[in-house]
Amino acid sequence: MDKLSPNHKQVIDENSKDKQLEQFRVNNEGTKMTTNQALKVSNDEESLKAGIRGPTLMEDFHFREKLTHFDNERIPERVVHARGYAAHGFFELYESMKEFTKAGFLQEPGTKTPVFTRFSNVVGSKGSADTVRDVRGFAVKFYTEEGNYDLVGNNIPIFFIQDGIKFPDLVHAIQPEPHNEMPQAASAHDTFWDFVANNQESAHMVMWLMSDRAIPRSWRMMEGFGVHTFRFVNEQGKGRFVKFHWKPALGVHSLVWDEAQKISGKDPDFQRRDLWESIEHGNFAEYELGVQMIDEKDEFMFDFDVLDATKLWPEEIVPVKIFGKMTLNRNVDNVFAETEQVAFHPGNVVPGIDFTNDPLLQGRLFSYLDTQLIRLGGPNFTEIPINRAVCPFHNNQRNGYSRQRIDVGQVSYHKNSLADNTPSTSTAKEGGFVHYAEKVEGRIIQARSDSFKDFFSQARLFWNSMSPPEKQHITDAFIFEVGKVASKSVRQQVVDMFANVDEGLAIHIADGVGVNPPTGKQVNVKASSPALSQENTTRVPYTLKVGVLIGNDFNGAEVKRAVKTLRKYGVTVDIVGEKLGTVRGADGLNVIVNETFLTMDPVLFDSLYVVGGTAENQAKFNSNIQYFINESFKHYKPIGFASTGLPFFELSNAKAGPGIVFATDNPDFDDDFVKAIAQQRFWDREIY
Known about the structure:
688 residues; alpha/beta; Catalase HpII,  Chain A, domain 1; six-stranded parallel β-sheet; 17 helices; 18 strands; oxidoreductase; catalase activity; peroxidase; Class_I_gatase-like; Catalase_large_C
């Protein structure tokens, strides 16, 4: 709890990016309508016509401007990461990283750098649901005094492929199949699994995709990773290989698959709503930033290639050094202008952060810029307010679509004498970016290093690191996903492939999807990495959501005390009843109901506090509460029962045991319930 922000709203950050954006914010309240050329408009109801019933005239410039703008309000959505949401904040440095990098924003402890962070789903279209099984994007733009630095990552530390040339194949395989444009935002179909079985470098990533990491509870509760190996370079020119890690203050928590599917129908905006409401309520999203570092002299001392994007560096072997914290504390003013127009690019670096020869990273360094040029309408997308650097920028680039700068002077080339050879370049000492002087030699060749050809050892490492519930979830996910594949041949290929990871896993998959079990592929490798299991994560009740199911004639003193305790620990409370309005306790206490059984659903809560009581339609009231209890119990969630809620426990399918907390004859109920909420899931619960 000590790493979390205080539970109150902060004023907009007094930093340069907020001040810069302020000039672009426009509030139209109380103003007179004008055209985009600032001409006052006298009529916005009728187009200009030749006679009252005649044709519309082309000279109606306001009509044409209004319709033309409307026709072009949508820009092409991203091919991947289309479904996204974002927030503003700042990054604060804990300790100087000067020993390792000359990046200006990482020099002085306490330095605050404005950031803009976009979370996203990879596969689905912009209109798909938040809670599908998918990789999540985790992209952060740092507005530093040396220029914009983009840390463009995911919530999974590795990727499906090793070389950028395979990226179009992967995306074509995982997106809806071209002959029928189905399924949307899902990997449970033939072409994806055919790709997996025939591109076995994907084995490790698929294990993560089948795990709970692919269905996060909240963007505030998922890790972020830079995925690739980058370089830190210090003032002395010494380079180190680095991997970036974002560690959420709330720990790493996930949904269960049945719950995730139901949320997609009940609230497809579940995760974006969670981020928006949390920030609006002052419960800011926080993540610590760290790096794993390997000296260049140690590049070849591991049993994995440090440049292979399908491999992670186990934290027990290469620890994560935490050096700062990001706080997201302000929602966007306009989703299109900011979230949709923001352009990230892994090539946006600052002095002290550089690239490596990771072939997937090398592909991204081309692809991202190429994409932004097409999607955002030309080379001037950097002048869009959300993409604008906070420091001045000067160069000889001119013209192009939507140019916003008014460049003065006759010179637009380098070198020149007419402008005294300005803008001039900067030396490294003046802050000029100098590429790391890595020695490169070799024949021109299209090939893959032998060190990249181990596809299964880290997939086994991941499997061995999982707790029994996590392994069961992975097994169930495989059976669900592969069970949707129509081709029996592809199903068999997948089973045979994952026997290289674990024969027992493959046997279970084969049994569930109707193909032959594998034979003779058992590999007895027991290496594990505890850092990979969510069972070892931080657990706090802060910002978790509890539904209070309540009617009339409850015990007012008991409920008031319990709700006060929940709010003391930062738990969000929704009062759910038969209808909106007020319910009255047996002792006269009035409680305002802000949600009903129709407007909410148990999958939208992390826990329930069952108060019960009486209602106008008692039978339906009882039935609704039973449904809420049964669903939450099935999803392993904690449930607290007030003294008046005990009859509803008896009516339900829930059983006394882990995570079920009763107020009757329990003076410590409030504290016990908060502890259960912090635990979040009770996997050892016996489900009916």
